[in-house]
Fold these 3 entries.
Entry 1:
Amino acid sequence: MALIQYLSRIHFDFGAIGELATEVGRLGLQRPLLVTDAGIAAAGILERVLDAAKPYAPVVYDGTSENPNEASLDACLEIWKAEGCDGVIALGGGSPIDLSKAIALLASHGGTFADYGVKTGGSERIGKVAPQIAIPTAAGTGAEVGRACVMTLNDGRKTVAVNLNMVADVVLCDPELTLSLPPRMTAATGVDALGHGIEASVSTYVNPPAGAIARDCVSRAARWLPVAVHDGNNGEARWQMMMAALEGGMALQKSLGAAHAMANPLGEAGYHHGTLVGILLPHVVRFNTEAVGDALEDLHRLSGAGAHQTLDRWIDSLLSEIGLPATLGALGVTAEDLPALADKAAADHLSATNPRPADAEDYLALLKGAL
């Protein structure tokens, strides 16, 4: 089993959840709050993790919504106080993991989540947060090693807090937990990992180690995502996709670009993040072509695209192969929605690291092309 000390302490392999009790003890926790969702509980994964945590008995919150919100955060903080919790265990996809980060932040710092938004400079005030263990059950967001936390506030606004101090202290990546993930969700989360690799590879931040990890993410996801979608019981494919997702999360230290800048405001309307990234990515690849130079040729090689197939067309064909929609219109987005979305994308913090500068007019054209 590999132990990777990069951003966090990471146990990676089939059976990694067997390390849970040891890591709870190593962190000195006595009463952790385990944050998950109803789907994880129904799938039997929660029961397995609680068994792995023995002799410790975490307090369970399984009410996480598809997009974590401030109401759930407030509920968890009340549980934290009432039960005397001293750490958080996140179990699930990006939503429980982001909710856990927010709990760890406010339990240690006080205030409201809006106080720590990256756009207002609040993220710079984030110091050491409460101890966290992250256990991902999907292979996509990389949130288990991500420094960002997204939260929908009570007034409907989405706020992002970004600081390395919010990265989980321990991550348990067990590919076995992804075997029950349905094909559609495997595809949607996997495309998000691929998008992390592609966008981080060409972002304007200079971070060669993260760039190298991003390129390896692209290579793994391109090869193994179709296998994982069509043969969910393929252990090798599940292992490789969980590693691609982890690498995509590691590469986030190099930041992202326009596809994620557009996916963020679209996600406020309830559309699945990974599905949005897949739809938007080929349009952004075309938009960035002249700005990325030799990196485009490198990504083309890593994707395995044919000599007569451009990278953007390869992404189109991949979406078709794994059963994901290719247009925003297929999700229910309308032309009337686009101007406001373009304004929000231009203001998103990830737009600043896209290799080709983009303003609201550029984003409107990209969104129209994707409609």
Entry 2:
Amino acid sequence: MNLEQQLIQYRRELHRFPELSMQEYQTTQRIRTWLSEAGITILDLPLKTGVVAEVRGSLPGATIALRADIDALPIVEQSGVEFSSENPGVMHACGHDFHTAVMVGAAILLQQEREQMRGTVRFLFQPAEEDANGAKWLTEQGAMEAIQAVFGFHNRPNLPVGVIGVREGALMASVDRFELTITGISGHAGMPENCIDPIAIGSQIVMALQTIVSRRISSLDNAVISVTRFSAGNTWNVIPGEAHLEGTVRTFQKDVRARISELMRELIENIAAANGAKVQFKWNECLPMVNNSSLFTSIIKQVANEAGLRVVEAERSLGGEDFAYFQALVPGFFLWIGVDGDQEWHHPAYRLSEAALEISARYWALLARAVLEKGI
């Protein structure tokens, strides 16, 4: 079996048996088996799920990390592929099965070349990316010790196979979450004048929040405020006493990230006060932005050209990625890799081209060796 066939087999097996964040037990065992069969060293870390492994070159050098996320999503699959999920209600709808197979392939290739390789490549098969907790958890278990640079990627359905997206600086947004409780006065729906209606107040807040971007901060700052949950009441003829709202804010600039929470709090508290209600506002910082280091831009492009890949300017995304947590510790770079998909991430009919598997594995092996040869 050649490498391409091997990686297709690995990817399809992962796709058939997807597992949710921090439940990736079978996935973990499969990765460990495949790496062990190739003679690759698995580090003895206290991991509930996930795998950290190393390929150690015979020549001295730096230690860098390549990361792949391994978890799936709570989605009922509608892709129609013959190797569809056999775990009801769970699907690899973001391509983490692809990421995992690619990095297993890169590890196999580097293991075959270790006698000529300088330094060490550590592979981070990370759980719980979809929960945005896996990178931090893996780091707490010692996975990033002695690492001097980190690299990762995400498949990109709207790019063809053989194309990679490269962007220096900000690539994916910082992610924050807000929660809001409005406390009014409950009462009869036919006599609202005797109540303080948290639904009406919440509706004012939802609409007013949309004026912060462009009216209080510049539209050029690429910020997004989304209210994603609004719950209140339990019957048709009673005005409830409370309403609960929840949502997310995505930004690319640190100063905007800090200011937008202040503007939201000010607006929310003023609207609530003007209507005689009380409000509790919670702001939870989740992830920094994915910020690609200029140290690696040229070598990433050079290796891509040598591998016969076409480089395009990567589009920014207001999606979040906990790979950013690794980049907060050491310099790093995150790429888009084209997979010629027909649906976006998290879609129940998500599919990708397996022709990208071997191409991507060989690219990562080449890039890792090139970075180690050049030095950090």
Entry 3:
Amino acid sequence: MVVKVPPSAKIVRKPRFARLPAPVLVRAMVFGSLFRSAPKPGGKILVAFASQTGAAETIAWRSANALAGASLVRVAALGSLTASEMAEAGTLLVVTSTYGAGEAPDSARAFERKQMAQQAALKGLNYAVLARGDRKYDATFCGFGQSVDRWLAASKARRLFDIICVDGDDDIAAMSKWCEQLTRLGATTSVEQLMPGPPQGWILAERRLLNPGSAGGETWHIALTPRELSQMVWTAGDIAEIWPRNSEAAVESFLRYHRLNGELSFRWHGHWTFLRDIIAHSRLPRPHEVEGIALEWLVERLESFPPREYSIASLPQSGRMELLVRKAVKDDGSLGLGSGWLTQTAEVGGVVKLRLRPNPNFQPPSDGSQILIGAGTGMAGLRAHLQYRQAMKLAGGWLLFGERGEKTDLYYADDIRAWQADGTLAKTDLVFSRDVSPKRYVQNLVTEQGEEIRSWIEAGASVLVCGGLQMAAGVQDALVALVGEGKLDQMTQDGLYRRDIY
């Protein structure tokens, strides 16, 4: 299910009223300015979000919508708020993700550095924190959310309830706690309404190796087609969450061995699901883990495969969803769960379960000139943006891209030539680390082209970065050296510096 949320570029300008559905806007107009009115105690709620890929922002808006019938609600990006604006609210609800090693999302970096560096005067403010993270990073799980929670407590705000830490998109237990607390604040909602919808079935239409003979890992072109045209709804920068699965043969063998009916349905991750599908998307337990166990208990104990996120490399106008997938190979020679399944195990013509995720922090920021920086499979996200600019007849793009070898790893070379020919790309700089000595990377390009990049930025160009964490960190360091940390913070708040990193 695609959830439409207001573009973050509109949120960071700190409007007095958040953009809620029509009934909420009517309520706001009747009562006037949210924080100048005098509702009953506890009637003013500020919902603040800090989101890297849009998931935390979506939960924030859904929570606000649920509360709007009983309270006067404002929604804002956490990074756009000052301590005094927080203090004005009767109740503050923070919904935040954690990026990297316990760090703040891009939009909240400046907030963490400036606001959270010292205690604020927040006595009299009630607050609660919902933190999203990935438990496989146990040492830093929900790290930024926990930092926000500690800072608010140290600033004398009153904690309404303990921080709720959510493990990914399908942590129904944690989201149920959040739903319960929202209900106590007057919300009318259910946990299903707060969580993403179930994944939908797409057809694996094409799989093609793009870089045979590469010095790096195999990179595959994956194309998916929808079962229904209504599924073709996304924009440049959005994300596909792919559910890896066991093979059909393995599922049928498991059901047959344990004499289980795959057509039985169970409540699983908040949705009614056939047992066959539950088994398909879970680690297959060993025989001794199944024997003598009630079926309902077995379903509860199954370890489901987490979804894998991929930047979408196409637009709906193409009639299909295209991905750029690097096949991960572990030290023992086994394949990564998601990439191994997509590139090797899944059958062409078979069903792939996926869920679209709007990613407002990486959607097109403006129609002006644009610098697009990426490496490796980060070309996927940049390609969708360049397709968007081509469709909108927007000139003035500058692509800086890095990979290993030009002969094997220049993905979408025909597209690049077409963008150069029609003016979508005004400038293109490519670097291939294995073709030169000493090795050079895309962050080196940023430094080498520094004067011109600074000139583009001063003229109002936006900057998009897509690719791996190490590359993105190197690019950010190079940009800070060029324009300064304050300028980069301001560009982030204005929606002119956006990243999709993994």
